[in-house]
Design brief:
Keywords: Heme, Heme biosynthesis, Iron, Metal-binding, Oxidoreductase, Peroxidase. The protein is built from 8 helices and 11 strands. The protein is α+β, with helices and mostly antiparallel strands and about 250 residues long. The protein binds harderoheme (III).
């Protein structure tokens, strides 16, 4: 019997990680550097219009460590819009001085593991909508990583009966909820879209809460037994003037 969880799917998500080719950027004429930065900031301002109109969302963060210099996370109602925005970014002058570091394609997802019985259309429920089409808080810190649920011998998530998965997810949800107000999570599904099964994006104003939450979850059976992880990316927000001063030489 097919016991796949039923998912609600919201906005499509692109996490686009770039390294700066600082050596080449430093060689650029200061006036051209200024123009290229202004062009990029104007692009971000235009993105903000979609956030304001609630027709999409974006987040712009530096990444600490050598994996990338910055990450632009974009959410839109269709994958086509993500592709268009990606192409537009690639045609900006500043993009000539970036090197693709990593990217992740997914769609914001809610599962029915903990949903109650109801006849209402979940897509009309304001609480569900707020999670499927999230307004991104301008939190100071971001943490992103892709993950799978294990399919290995006796530890096969996909062979567990629905009820067992529900029980396990309840425990997961309880830990998560104890971080309410400290960490906000966006879980996006990527089966068929990218190399892992989910993207996990966490936001917080206290970077240490990422470590505490993720560590606590490691002891919970859903993660301890069934989770496998890709690379972790952690960063700090680039907002206001920092969107341009980050590129100053
Ligand atoms: C910040 C806290 C937090 C909270 C409150 C929370 C709650 C919940 C609930 C209630 C549910 C189920 C219903 C739904 O909403 O879909 C989920 C679902 C999910 N989660 Fe979660 N999670 C959190 C946080 C949180 C983290 C930190 C991780 C990474 C795990 C780790 O070990 O590093 C994670 C993963 C997931 C995944 C991959 C799914 C989908 C699983 C699937 O098989 O479909 N999650 N999650």
């Amino acid at each position: 019997m097919n016991e796949a969880a039923i998912t609600l799917d919201g906005w499509y998500v692109l996490h686009d990680f770039r390294q700066m080719d600082w050596a080449s950027w430093k060689q650029v004429d200061p006036e051209l550097r200024k123009q290229a930065t202004e062009e990029f900031v104007a692009f971000l301002d235009e993105m903000q219009l979609a956030d304001d109109a609630k027709t999409g969302a974006h987040a712009f963060y530096t990444i600490v460590g050598q994996k990338a210099d910055f990450m632009l996370m974009t959410l839109r109602p269709t994958m086509d819009e993500l592709q268009e925005l990606e192409a537009r970014f690639n045609k900006l002058t500043i993009a000539d001085f970036t090197i693709p570091a990593y990217s992740y394609v997914s769609v914001v997802e809610l599962s029915n593991y903990l949903a109650g019985e109801s006849n209402e259309d979940p897509y009309q429920n304001p609480h569900v909508r707020a999670r499927l089409y999230p307004e991104l808080q301008r939190s100071q810190y971001i943490c992103f990583y892709p993950m799978d649920k294990r399919r290995d011998g006796d530890d096969n998530w996909y062979m567990l009966p629905m009820q067992e998965r529900k029980d396990l997810m309840r425990s997961h949800g309880l830990i998560g909820r104890s971080y309410a107000g400290k960490v906000k999570q966006i879980i996006s599904g990527s089966v068929g879209f990218d190399d892992f099964e989910w993207g996990v994006t966490l936001f917080s104003d206290d970077v240490l809460q990422f470590k505490k939450l993720i560590y606590e979850m490691r002891f919970d059976e859903v993660s301890a037994r069934y989770a496998e992880f890709g690379s972790f990316f952690t960063g700090t927000i680039l907002a206001g003037e920092k969107r341009s001063t980050f590129f100053n030489i």
